[in-house]
Amino acid sequence: xxxxxxxxxxxxxxxxxxxxxxxxxxxxxxxxxxxxxxxxxxxxxxxxxxxxxxxxxxxxxxxxxxxxxxxxxxxxxxxxxxxxxxxxxxxxxxxxxxxxxxxxxxxxxxxxxxxxxxxxxxxxxxxxxxxxxxxxxxxxxxxxxxxxxxxxxxxxxxxxxxxxxxxxxxxxxxxxxxxxxxxxxxxxxxxxxxxxxxxxxxxxxxxxxxxxxxxxxxxxxxxxxxxxxxxxxxxxxxxxxxxxxxxxxxxxxxxxxxxxxxxxxxxxxxxxxxxxxxxxxxxxxxxxxxx
Length: 291
Ligand code: NAP
What we know:
This protein has two domains: 5-180, Rossmann fold (3-Layer(aba) Sandwich); 184-290, 6-phosphogluconate dehydrogenase C-terminal like domain (6-phosphogluconate dehydrogenase C-terminal fold, Orthogonal Bundle). It is elongated, with a radius of gyration of 21 Å. It is α/β, with parallel strands linked by helices. The protein has a six-stranded parallel sheet. The protein has a three-stranded mixed sheet with strand order 7-8-9, with helices on one face. 54% of the residues lie in helices and 13% in strands. The two termini are 34 Å apart. NADP nicotinamide-adenine-dinucleotide phosphate (NAP) binds next to helix 1, strand 7 and helix 10.
């Protein structure tokens, strides 16, 4: 049986929040979807596009009657948004609402939730492993989470019913839900998502200063496009992800730097054997995990 909730409240109606709302609307899961965020322009756009049914300019008002509050704002805005949600729920006497988020790093978000929410057992931290390089309500689409993974990182105190509700909501969007601890999540994501984004940003930034930059982009073939697509992602979101998962990303960058130094030395010494050996290993590893 599909889950049903009366009132869903989305804080931040961009790509992630908008797609969550749209997918749940399509699945017929929510009675009413309201929202709050930062600018009225974005909220109006989200309503025009049919992502939400109504909006409030004040987060405290928006969460008043919520059964579930879904927070999908940049990580740097989480603290202030959590404080406003907590104030709104307390003022309305709403002690039943379940709160969840979609932030791309989890340990810091969990620590914020524990410090801010009067009852943090009803907070379930989450992260959809889905997205595109586009932002804003106009980028949202209902199929974003279909067959994609969502990682929940509950702690020992997290309410089991809250975990069940959040799991079923994600399943209703078409996603597969897994749980893991927040620290492990941050380590895995630093390797598989955060480091690749830094490489893409760094690669484009490095080429930017070449004399013949126009020709570099004119003759850019598939490989360059594939590797740098994610350098078109939102700079504020990525600044926040880096700062919130700093230690794990620094660790991955240091490993990557060692690897690049090794390749640099192999090439400087015209060590074709070494280069071939590294490329073969990398190809075998990628083929094993992607085929
Ligand atoms: P987005 O499209 O830029 O949307 C962000 C939304 O948050 C906008 O509606 C924005 O409103 C609102 N917002 C920004 N600052 C705010 C503040 N101080 N107070 C209240 N609302 C604020 O971003 P997104 O891609 O949906 O990302 C949202 C979250 O999901 C981030 O935490 C990100 O780490 C996570 N995430 C992203 C992806 C991805 O691929 N994009 C994947 C997984 C998880 P305005 O338009 O008015 O500024």
